[in-house]
Each structure stands twice: as structure tokens, then as C-alpha cells.
Amino acid sequence: MSIFARLREDALDTGRAVLDAVYPARCVCAPDEPLPTRPPFGLCDICVANLEPNDSERCAVCDHPGPRCCPPGSDLRMRAPYLYTGPLPSAVHAMKFGGRDDLARGLGRLLAEHVDIGTLARECDQCVPVPLSTARARQRGYNQSAILARAIGRALGMPVRHCLRRNRDTAPQHTLDAVQRQTNVRGAFRVKGHVIGSVLLVDDVITSGETVRAAAHALLEAGAHRVVAVALGRTPRGAVEAHPRLSLAPSRAKEAP
Length: 257
Ligand SMILES: [Zn+2]
Ligand SMILES: [Zn+2]
Description:
The chain is α/β, with parallel strands linked by helices. Helices cover about 40% and strands about 15% of the residues.
């Protein structure tokens, strides 16, 4: 990270600290109850304890729970340390649609602390977040995957490059069936400039894996030596990304679901 980027991050942190004093921390399990202290990972201790680890039998390539599902020759390694169950759907929904960028920073720290993420990060030269479309980024005001990537970069001393771009807006993957998901994101990404070395590609949730596959394809075409995709949550097959209803503090809600 350049000195200017670091100064900008520090200024943002100071701004957030002021904001935190005005808007006390709240967990997704009880959004109307302010928490007595700001929890390190954004969620309260009970919700952190209720995150379900994705560490039982799972595919060695795509990290999907259950037996290996990817054929030999599939080379995009994916790792998402938590199942998209329990409090995680509410947290991701609040990050994406409730203006809760603070949760993205907290959960980014949690992700960075996971031993497997540390191991994979050491094999990579840079973090690259999956981008939003320009329209969606403008509407939301931030990209939750970029915040996760910055948290990993800071914790593990990795540069973060925002070199991926969306060629077009795509329909949310959770609204589509398996075939539609492939065509929805095929060719959806391009890379600004050239990529040298290995990339830790960061997203919030891996559902079918098609989004990170399409993004990885663009990175490899731009010169990346290898791409590893990491995310907070892995959606079990057959499940859709749940969109729970949350009662968020209206003053912090920036975008309607
Ligand atoms: Zn909670
Ligand atoms: Zn698989």
C-alpha cells in the first residue's frame, strides 16, 4: 500500500471512529440494541460463536461442502472458511444493503485471522477484490469485497490492487439457475493494466463459483501466474443466498434491498 493510500485509510479510520461515537455498534442479531463495546469482528460474541465453520468434508478445489465435485484439471482453488448459514446471511445482507461497511471491516479481520487464508495469502503477491459495477458501487457508496480485501491486505501485509472492472452490470447470481449463472458472468470482467505474480481474489460469498471463475479468467488473461479465490461464506449446493429481513437503523441505511 502506498503512503498516500495508507494516509487515506488512516483518515477514514479516524472518520469512522467519530461516526462510531455517534452511531454505536450494533449486531445483526439485535439491531435495535446498541452493543456496550465495539466487537473486533463486527458481530457480537454469540454470533461469532454461531458462525458455522466450513471445515467438514469438502471439495478440495471449490471448497463446496461434501465429496469432491470438481473434475481433475479444475485449477481455481477456492476457500471460504464459513458456511453461508447461521448469522452470516444477515451479516452479508447488512453489509450489502444496509450501509454496514463497519461489518465488512470486522468480518475482513476475521477472515484475515483464519489460518487457511493466511496460508493461501503467503502464496500470493497481491489481493484483488471482485468489483461491483460502477452503478452499483455509486449507489452503495462502497464495495464490501474491497473492504474485505483491504482488511486482509492490512493484516497480512499484502498490497491490494483494484485492477478488475465489470464490463457490464450483471443480475445477482442468487436469482439465477446454474446455467444462467454461467452465462450471466461470462466475459463480465476485464483487467486494467497487466498483472504480475499470483492473486488472492476476494469476494464476500461464493455461491456457484461462477463469479470468481469469470474474474479469475480475466486475471489470468492479463498475465496473472495463478489465482486463488477466497470469501467469507460458501453457499451449500441447492441453497440460494437468503435475503433475510433486517430492521436496520434508518440513519445508516444507504440502500434499499
Ligand atoms: Zn449478534
Ligand atoms: Zn468442487
